[in-house]
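Hello again,

I reread your note about wanting to compare the complex against the isolated chains. To keep things tidy I'm splitting this into two emails, and this first one only covers the full assembly. Below are the input lines as submitted, including protein chains and any nucleic acid or small-molecule components. They are followed by the predicted structure of everything together. The single-chain runs will come separately.
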Amino acid sequence: MIKIQARLKRKHFELDASLQLNQRVTAIYGPSGAGKSTLLSIIAGITKPDSGRIMIDGDCLYDSELRINKPIHERKIGLVFQDGRLFPHLTVEGNLSYALNFTPVENQQFQLKEIVDLLEIRHLLKQKPHQLSGGEKQRVALGRALLSSPRLLMLDEPLASLDDRLKKQILPFLKLVSNEINIPMIYISHSKEEIMQITDNLIDIQLGKVSYKAA
Amino acid sequence: MLEILRFTPTELSTLVLSLKVASFCVVLSLVPAIMVAWVLARKSFFGKSLLDSLVHLPLVLPPVVPGFMLLLLLGNQGLIGKYLHSMFGFSLAFTWMGAVVASAVMAFPLMVRSTRLAISQVDKGLEIAAQSLGANPLKVFFTITLPLAMPGIITGLILGFSRSLGEFGATITFVGNIEHETRTLPLAIYSYTQIPDGDLPALRLVILSMALALGALMISDRLERKANQNIGRHHD
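Full-complex prediction:
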């Protein structure tokens, strides 16, 4: 279970979120600029909120009163960004195995081989990121995030930079991951249509205010 | 005509000394330059612009000024130098190691500049992605930031090396112009121009210097191209 309480005030923007995620897959929906990505970066530890508390399965990641603020690399939250963010100097295989470096073998949830087969990226292993198409990049990014054995997977508009044809190619993989893999997942998108294909458990965020619609 | 390229043992030893000084200069400066560049590119703190200015000062001062300051600091009677001398019997002034220090001071800003530019161009998003996979900041630096900044670091290295080969003012002020000890190529050229019949040897050393500089630039270009390919960037 994931509990998030966060307030953040900036010059032209205010976020006030309070939510509790019980379902395994949750989608956060809202127009661009509403604060979806800010919420994600607060959960991931990239942005520090002014106040609040973030708990995952009883483990405290952030608490403004107790002055707890775990750094990004200790949160074990897998991120998939809109732009993939594959490491350009490593091959696809290098990118995937990079994620395995930080979890002791006995705690690793997946093997490289499993993920490679699940996402059908075996033929790409020796290639460099700049040789991949947008859809292939996102599959590798998804695989890399999974291989880090996260306790929460967050996807921030993973399809936004792809055209319709590529979206159709990668959606089945996202569905596959959300159905088959037992990791809680937060899926952020401005497209309701896209979200509907993944989950019907939807949180609406409008202008920094979060309202939680329980499914 | 080829007579001109027949180098005397003295000239060759000048060349070897120059290369030795320049190599030690970049090897010694590299790690501090990368550290300072990283701090300037990635951190904001009180006094940052002062540090920035101090690092760049040798670039805009007449080289004789840093040379003189080195003499005041590290000379055998200098503020720090007198302790080095009395406690360890170690002296920098008028030795080739002093020439290394003088040229390092002059080359440092160039190395920092190009490394800093390269580091600030590394996408922070990639560093965050690496952290989210579990890499601590140190690991991120060595596995992501450093390899991606490598082309700029190589450029800085070659710039620093070339600057050191060409160093004149700070060197002659701090360590003088002693044959086989501190007389590097530019000092030797200068010396030859001061004596009768020195034009021909001076010209030979000028040709040597130009060949070295050209070689350094060509090597830098190749290495940079290779480093760029390694990180998936391509230039025509």
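For quick reference: Helices of chain A lie at 36-44, 92-98, 112-118, 134-147, 164-180, 192-198.

B.
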